[in-house]
């Protein structure tokens, strides 16, 4: 397995990398103390739980979930949602002080749900991400496009729809690592209940079997914060984390994903 982070003198480490190293150390310590955390062998498949479209009131469930399960997650926040109310601002402060949670940039406006029109103007996309950065002061370089499964890592890229290509290249040029996802965790439109643990684990095994992940051995899972509004989903999430660990998977923050862009 390759190193997730390059070896550089400490004095030359950029801020986001220091945050990643500190997070790694903290998580290792925290997991060592937790009876719930199971040590995974070095060649384990790594799962990255990511949550899009927060912060909404239900996002607060991530606080207890991550702490009690000692599970690292990555969240992609939308500025206009985070700053929407006193409640969402309070949850923002709570979650950004949680060492299990890594926050990335999901744009300020989320394209106002008009994706094709949004990506038609790549310069405006960059401005929107910078507005989000200025508003929420992310300490990482992680980004995810709204409505597009697009990847920009150090040496590799992938697009789903072509209209996001130029915007994604612009974000990469501006220093962002743009993450898509390998598998979306479905939830029902009627009551926001997450797909069952067994169904998700079955689909994860299919992704592995048919080599469908962007990086072999690393699976980025996409969840959406609205699913957290159903209490059953929280139980399902807990069961998934425990059952996946029992099956030999391990969980990591996207800061630990291999081959990321390095900003000198
Ligand atoms: Zn989104």
Structural class: alpha/beta
The N- and C-terminal alpha carbons lie at a distance of 24 Å
Count, helices: 9
CATH architecture: Alpha-Beta Barrel
CATH topology type: TIM Barrel
Shape: globular
Give the H and E element order.
HEHEHHEHHEEEHEEHEHE
Radius of gyration: 17 Å
The percent of residues in helical segments reads 25-40%
Summarize the model shown:
With 264 residues, the protein is α/β, with parallel strands linked by helices.
Question: Can you walk me through this structure?
Answer:
The chain has one domain (13-256): Glycoside hydrolase/deacetylase (TIM Barrel, Alpha-Beta Barrel), CATH 3.20.20. Strand 5 and strand 6 form a beta hairpin. 40% of the residues are buried. It is globular, with a radius of gyration of 17 Å. The longest helix is centred in the first third of the chain and has 19 residues, at 15-33. It is built from 9 helices and 10 strands. The strands form 3 sheets. Strands 1, 2, 3, 8, 9 and 10 form a 6-stranded parallel sheet that branches. Helix content is 38%, strand content 14%. It has 264 residues and is α/β, with parallel strands linked by helices. Mean pLDDT is 88; it is low at 1-38. It has helices at 15-33, 61-69, 79-82, 86-96, 115-119, 122-136, 165-173, 197-209, 231-246; strands at residues 46-54, 73-77, 101-105, 142-143, 151-152, 157-158, 177-178, 183-184, 218-224, 250-251.
């Amino acid at each position: 397995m390759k190193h997730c982070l390059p070896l550089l003198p400490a004095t030359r480490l950029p801020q986001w990398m220091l945050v990643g190293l500190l997070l790694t150390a903290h998580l290792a310590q925290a997991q060592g103390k937790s009876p719930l955390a199971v040590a995974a062998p070095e060649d384990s498949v790594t799962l990255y739980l990511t949550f899009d479209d927060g912060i909404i009131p239900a996002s607060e469930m991530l606080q207890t979930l991550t702490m009690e399960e000692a599970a690292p997650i990555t969240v992609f926040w939308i500025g206009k949602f985070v700053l929407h109310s006193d409640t969402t601002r309070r949850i923002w402060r709570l979650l950004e002080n949680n060492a299990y949670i890594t926050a990335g940039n999901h744009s300020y406006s989320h394209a106002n749900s008009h994706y094709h029109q949004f990506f038609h103007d790549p310069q405006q996309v960059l401005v929107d991400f910078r507005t989000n950065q200025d508003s929420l002061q992310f300490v990482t370089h992680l980004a995810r496009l709204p409505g597009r499964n697009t990847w920009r890592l150090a040496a590799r890229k992938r697009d789903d729809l072509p209209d996001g290509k130029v915007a994604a290249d612009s974000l990469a040029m501006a220093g962002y690592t743009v993450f898509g996802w390998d598998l979306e965790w479905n939830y029902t439109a009627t009551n926001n209940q997450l797909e069952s643990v067994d169904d998700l684990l079955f689909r994860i095994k299919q992704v592995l079997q048919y080599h469908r992940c962007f990086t072999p051995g690393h699976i980025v899972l996409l969840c959406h914060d609205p699913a957290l509004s159903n209490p059953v989903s929280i139980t399902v999430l807990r069961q998934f984390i425990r059952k996946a660990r029992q099956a030999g998977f391990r969980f990591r923050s996207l800061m630990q994903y291999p081959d990321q862009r390095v900003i000198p």
